[in-house]
Write a structure and sequence with these properties.
heterodimer; A: alpha/beta; Glutaconate Coenzyme A-transferase; nine-stranded mixed β-sheet; 6 helices; globular; B: alpha/beta; ten-stranded mixed β-sheet; 5 helices; 13 strands; 27% strand; EC 2.8.3.9 (chain A); transferase (chain A); EC 2.8.3.8 (chain A)
């Protein structure tokens, strides 16, 4: 089986251009590809759109910032698509001052929009958000007497995810609740870069335990190398 | 006449007695999380954590701390025997697909039509809805957990929510520190009261249409 290139975090980030759309895995920092995000922070890339569950934790102490919060503090994003930004004061500030746009999406809708983007669907119908502010500007479709919102797919130019193990063919396993959005984002990225805690030889992962098939993965970065 | 004193423990204790052995439950962040502390020993429920697992356990000690296991608030936790992990789409498939028996969520305002507002105060607090909209929409039964009054002394139960809704018409049960209500056909139906409050005092001090159930009784803690 053909091996996927193993590159450094810096080489990975060098592919990204200003203005690109990124998907970044993680839930409050758990499952965030920290080495890639550190390299992104050092790269000075800007005007990016970030699709991420949340904006990590930043309540005023920069040294305690988690997840994508250090990148938010470096003002690398012009738009955030997230389900929760309440634990990042800097995102709140950027939103209120108009420096960045925030699109709040119910967490389940966010997951499914990403899955739709990665699985060739033109969107999906969900009852979540009917009769709320989330409905604004969306098509309401009635199916068998019940109202649903048409939600559209999301895709990324680059998906950055963390895995527990990657074999050299790009097959991935995850660690506990660090899995969260990563398997979905892996399907929805034009280019998918995985930061793995451990890189192993092809044939050493039990095929029954692989969560993300290597077909979705383009580059592998060793965690901790950044 | 009695003097009202906020009592979150009563709310958590009453809700914990609603569940049956084998129920699958999602507890929201804050007050709903307290419910987990009071589930009777002979009732085994499975807690779902919307960031991707079933079988949420207690807070970890030094020996079983795993940085990759956190609850929906991002706080380190443990899993129980028989737990399993899954991705966010599966997690919300469980939620939206109607597979959870109960979800317990906090309240800014809850109205007599079953509408709930709990995720933002325009111009003041815009944290985002997280998983709350999906949980309200998808769980078989929605329990709203709240202290009876806001800081100004007004009941958090209202005729009609003024804040942006988290979901429309989804609340089934409201448990406050004064009693338990069923939300049905445009009414709050008082099913139980918690002494020293009386049904009459609750009716007088609560906004919205309240009906005292003919079988309304005192719940003994």
């Amino acid at each position: 089986m053909k091996e996927k290139p193993i590159i450094t975090a810096e080489e990975a980030i060098a592919m990204i251009k200003d203005g690109d759309t990124l998907m970044v895995s993680g839930f409050m920092g758990v499952g965030t590809p920290a080495g890639l995000m550190k390299a992104l922070g050092e790269s000075g890339r800007k005007d990016l759109t970030l699709i991420c569950s949340d904006n990590g934790l930043f309540l005023g102490d920069e040294s305690a910032a988690t997840g994508v919060a250090p990148n938010v503090l470096k003002k690398q994003f012009k738009k955030y698509i997230a389900s929760h930004i309440g634990l990042n004061k800097e995102t709140q500030r950027q939103m209120l001052s108009g420096e960045a746009e925030v699109e709040l999406v119910p967490q389940g809708t966010l997951a499914e929009r990403i899955r739709s983007g990665g699985t060739g669907l033109g969107g999906f119908l969900t009852p979540t958000g009917v009769g709320t502010a989330v409905q604004e500007g969306k098509q309401v479709i009635n199916v068998e007497g019940k109202d649903y919102l048409l939600e559209l797919p999301l895709k990324s130019d680059y998906t950055l995810i963390r895995a527990a193990k990657a074999d050299k063919a790009g097959n991935l396993t995850y660690s506990a609740s660090a899995r969260n959005f990563a398997p979905l984002m892996a399907m929805a990225g034009e280019t998918v870069i995985v930061e793995a805690d451990e890189i192993v030889e092809i044939g050493t992962l039990d095929p029954e335990t692989v969560v993300t098939p290597g077909i979705f993965v383009h580059y592998i970065v060793q965690r901790g190398e950044a | 006449m009695f003097e009202y004193k906020e009592d979150k423990t009563k709310i958590a204790k009453r809700i914990a007695r609603i569940f049956k052995d084998g129920d699958y439950v999602n507890l929201g962040i804050g007050l709903p999380t307290l419910v987990g502390n009071y589930v009777p020993e002979d009732v085994h429920i499975v807690l779902q954590s919307e960031n991707g697992f079933l079988g949420l356990g207690e807070a970890p000690g030094e020996e079983n701390f795993n940085p990759d296991i956190v609850n929906a608030g991002g706080v380190p936790c443990t899993i129980i025997e028989g737990a399993c992990f899954f991705d966010s789409a599966t997690s919300f498939g469980i939620i939206r697909g109607g597979h959870l028996d109960y979800t317990v969520l906090g309240v800014l305002e809850a109205d007599q039509e079953g509408n709930l507002a709990n995720y933002m105060i325009p111009g003041k607090m815009v944290p985002g809805m997280g998983g709350a909209m999906d949980l309200l929409t998808g769980a078989k039964k929605v329990i709203a957990a709240t202290v009876h009054f806001d800081k100004k002394g007004n009941s958090k139960m209202v005729h009609s929510c003024s804040l942006p809704l988290t979901a429309k018409g989804e609340v089934d049960i409201i448990v406050t520190d004064l009693g338990m209500f069923e939300v049905k056909e445009g009414n709050f139906i008082l099913k139980e009261y918690f002494a020293p409050a009386t049904p009459e005092w609750i009716v007088e001090n609560t906004r919205g249409n309240i009906v005292i159930d003919p079988e309304c009784r005192e719940f003994k803690f």
